[in-house]
């Protein structure tokens, strides 16, 4: 198929030639002006045709359609300049500084909420009224194509699981449940944007069969000393609060950015389960009614510091440090009735208290050097550390109607149990990237990368038996994992003419994974595998406002250490959570057609996964009378997905953003009692309404809705919510007030059904209804934020490393 792909791509586009204009923007002293605005306007009415930004060297390039046009150049702190749109190289264009007035006028340009990028979609979090005081997880949930399964700790992109999550371009190598916990405690106040990258290029890791979600934190590059502070108070079922402070000090060659955030969330959730099943451990056929209420209090601290030093015009170096600590107290009350047919009844009452403490820290060091014109090299080293300690206590009674204990006192039926779980993850990364402009129309990018991951995980359940705490052998785990991934890539970008570009690359990754029992030193898993990952993209600019792209990528989804470890975690007296050492990595092939017209974006994606991983599936295990909830490989899955992002501007004060992701989805599962195939139509919709009101008021209303979907053999019912927020910008730079309401109509809950697709183990048929706190009462938040400090826009001398530093943050 790959041999046929390139001719197919080339035949798909037959371009007419287009005039090209280029040049370089500098100040009066010849210093380049990076990221300056270049606007192509019609001569007759000054209507905007298209826009672009200069790169870090101040260079711009635009294709110009037929007709009379002129170019307008803008840069903060400088006077705009208009010039006729010529043809070819316009040479060096000099901007003059703007005269400063004591009564400085502040002009704000609001970024659109959604922007299409080469690999996917960008969500500009900082511009949303509803982001203030929320968590990163809540913002992700409102993003087009993203689905968060809070009940089963799952994240999917465009209907597919296997998403790799990055923070400032660094992959967070932890289990999905730990990622959900991390994002749920991370404040959105510090987030600049979220990049949803469905088809990454060769410079990205091949990990992530569904693509990447990259969370980019705020960073102020303006000259001088500046800062921003914000405070949020809220209440739903319980109190919520966030305070944050950001400081930046930038001079000509030195930049320092720091931030600190504290957040608190007192929340509540409740869950109902109704099921029928055959459980030998309880004597046979059962009807079960289960109710669970959870009260969680989370206190979270986040801090970051970044330093960047420009050694000379060709060399830039820097370091970045992040730290996050979270304390989480979870108290759960569980009540269940087991009707053992035909007439016996068992009653279960349990109380669980978990104290979850975790620390996440990271350090990055980088060097970017321009060797000569059009040739750069970047070096980077990363170290990531993650520690989690999650002890728990369980007190329960499992009784007959006569008050007699059910089950034995030497098993998971024990009325007093204690659990402990400790995980340490250490990740080291070394990488080097090289870029060279071989000719005016041909660009080379290449690099190498090595990643070493060490995981130590110990967990267990002990029961109080005859006055002594006794560990259950089937519920104890002490596992260590080592994983190494070595990668090398090369890609070429060929500009055939002013309207047609071909990007083709190849990445090779060699990975080894070793998992062993740290008590016995027995090696459970020892895998070594090398895989080639090609990618190719053909981009064709159809007009000044329209672009078409056809691409192919190959990806891999590797099991996490939690997926592979043979741990046992208590669920209830009849079920435990565990891993699966037999899991295989999933291989994904994607073919994507993307069309963009002005700010509208449409794409059609065909994706096929071999052996995709489905977590939280119902299976049998070593103890035949227990239910094991574990990850399983499916046979395959195929998706044909259409995505549309449509911003609509009604007038100067009313605009809308709509997003749709949906299509045909087919899969086959093997772990059920009988293998089964299923095809269905899955979709999700996001929408927002933005109103610019008089006297610096603005209003935002947004919502999302996800249709029915399947996760392995588990069916998820539709879910959705509606949110609203209002913002007031105070005069004389006195700050901003924001008020928001989450889940206005109290609709947010998640329903899963087991046994509807085919027969499950123990003939289980159940309906699980998980409700967030907003099912009881919406969450109200009031925020105040203000910026302070002074200074003009920082002029960063061109090092020629702009693209590479972006890659440092993105892979």
Describe this structure in words.
It is a single chain. The protein has 811 residues and is mainly beta. It has two domains: 19-94, Sandwich (Immunoglobulin-like); 114-437 and 447-455 and 467-712 and 738-810, Beta Barrel (Maltoporin, Chain A). It is built from five helices and 46 strands. The protein has a 27-stranded antiparallel β-sheet that branches. Strands 8-9-14-15-12-13 form a six-stranded mixed β-sheet. The longest helix has 10 residues, at 2-11. The protein is globular, with a radius of gyration of 28 Å. Mean pLDDT is 84; it is low at 1-18, 100-109 and 791-811. InterPro entries: CarboxyPept-like_regulatory (IPR008969), OMP_b-brl_3 (IPR041700), Plug_dom_sf (IPR037066). Keywords: Signal. Residues 790-811 are annotated as: Disordered.
Give keywords.
single chain, 811 residues, mainly beta, Immunoglobulin-like, Maltoporin, Chain A, 2 domains, 5% helix
């Amino acid at each position: 198929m790959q041999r046929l792909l390139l001719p197919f791509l080339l035949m798909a586009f037959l371009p007419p030639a287009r005039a090209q204009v280029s040049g370089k923007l500098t100040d009066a002293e010849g210093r380049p002006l990076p990221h300056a605005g270049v606007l192509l306007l019609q001569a007759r009415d000054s209507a905007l045709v298209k826009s672009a930004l200069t790169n870090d060297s101040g260079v711009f390039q635009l294709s110009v359609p037929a007709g009379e046009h002129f170019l307008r150049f803008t840069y903060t702190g400088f006077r705009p300049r208009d010039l006729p749109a010529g043809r070819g190289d316009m040479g060096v264009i000099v901007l003059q500084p703007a005269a400063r007035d004591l009564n400085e006028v502040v002009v704000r340009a609001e970024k659109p909420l959604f922007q299409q990028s080469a690999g996917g979609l960008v969500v500009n979090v900082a511009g949303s009224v509803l982001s203030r005081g929320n968590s990163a997880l809540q913002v992700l949930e409102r993003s087009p194509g993203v689905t968060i399964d809070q009940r089963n700790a799952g994240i999917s992109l465009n209907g597919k699981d296997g998403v790799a999550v990055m923070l400032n371009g660094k992959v967070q190598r932890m289990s999905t449940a730990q990622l959900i916990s991390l994002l749920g405690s991370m404040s959105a106040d510090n987030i600049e944007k979220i990049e949803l990258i469905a088809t990454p290029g060769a410079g990205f890791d091949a990990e992530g069969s569904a693509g990447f979600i990259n969370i980019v934190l705020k960073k102020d590059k303006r000259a001088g000393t500046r800062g921003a502070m914000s405070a949020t108070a809220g209440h739903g079922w319980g109190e919520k609060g966030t305070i944050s402070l950001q400081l930046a000090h930038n001079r000509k060659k030195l930049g320092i950015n720091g931030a600190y955030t504290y957040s608190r969330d007192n929340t509540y959730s409740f869950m109902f389960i109704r099921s029928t099943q055959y459980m030998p451990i309880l004597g046979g056929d059962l009807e079960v009614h289960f109710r669970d209420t959870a009260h969680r209090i989370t206190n979270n601290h986040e801090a970051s510091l970044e330093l960047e030093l420009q050694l000379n015009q060709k060399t830039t170096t820097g370091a970045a440090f992040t730290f996050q600590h979270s304390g989480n107290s979870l108290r759960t009350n569980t009540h269940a009735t087991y009707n053992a047919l035909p007439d016996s009844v068992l009653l279960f009452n349990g109380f669980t208290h978990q104290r979850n403490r975790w620390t996440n820290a990271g350090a990055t060091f980088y060097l970017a050097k321009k060797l000569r014109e059009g040739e750069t090299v970047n070096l980077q080293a990363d170290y990531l550390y993650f520690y989690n300690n999650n002890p728990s206590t369980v007190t329960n009674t499992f009784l007959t109607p006569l008050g007699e204990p059910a089950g034995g006192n030497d098993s998971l039926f024990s009325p007093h149990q204690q659990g402990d779980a400790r995980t340490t993850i250490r990740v080291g990364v070394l990488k080097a990237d090289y870029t060279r402009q071989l000719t005016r129309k041909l660009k080379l990018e290449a690099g190498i990368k090595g990643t070493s991951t060490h995981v130590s995980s110990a967990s267990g359940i002990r029961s109080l038996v005859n006055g002594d705490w006794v560990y259950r052998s089937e519920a104890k785990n002490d596992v260590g994992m080592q994983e190494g991934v070595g990668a090398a890539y090369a890609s070429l970008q060929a500009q055939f003419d002013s309207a047609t570009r071909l990007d083709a690359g190849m990445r090779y990754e060699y990975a080894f994974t070793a998992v062993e029992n740290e008590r016995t030193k027995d090696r459970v898993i020892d895998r070594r595998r090398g895989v080639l990952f090609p990618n190719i993209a053909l981009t064709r600019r159809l007009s000044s406002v329209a672009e078409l792209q056809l691409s192919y990528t190959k990806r891999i989804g590797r099991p996490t250490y939690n997926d592979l470890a043979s741990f046992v975690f208590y669920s209830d007296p009849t079920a435990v959570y565990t891993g699966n050492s037999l899991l295989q990595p999933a291989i994904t092939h994607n073919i994507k057609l993307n069309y963009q017209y002005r700010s509208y974006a449409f794409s059609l994606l065909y994706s096929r996964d071999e052996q995709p991983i489905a977590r939280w599936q119902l299976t049998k295990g070593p103890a035949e009378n227990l239910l094991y909830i574990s990850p399983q490989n499916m046979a395959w899955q195929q998706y044909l997905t259409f995505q549309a992002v449509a911003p609509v501007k009604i007038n100067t004060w009313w605009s809308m953003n709509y997003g749709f992701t949906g299509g045909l989805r087919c899969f086959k599962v093997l772990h059920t009692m009988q293998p089964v195939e299923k095809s269905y139509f899955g979709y999700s919709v996001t929408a927002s309404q933005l109103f610019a009101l008089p006297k610096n008021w603005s209003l935002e209303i947004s919502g999302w809705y996800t249709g029915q979907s399947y996760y392995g053999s588990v069916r998820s019912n539709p879910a959705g919510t509606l949110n609203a927020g209002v913002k007031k910008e105070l005069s004389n730079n006195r700050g901003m007030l924001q008020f928001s309401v989450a889940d206005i109509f109290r609709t947010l809950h998640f329903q899963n059904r087991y046994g509807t697709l085919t027969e499950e183990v123990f003939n289980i048929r159940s309906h699980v209804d998980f409700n967030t706190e907003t099912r009881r009462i919406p969450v109200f938040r009031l925020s105040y934020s203000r910026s302070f400090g002074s200074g003009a826009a920082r002029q960063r001398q061109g090092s020629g490393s702009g693209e590479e530093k972006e890659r440092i943050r993105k892979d």
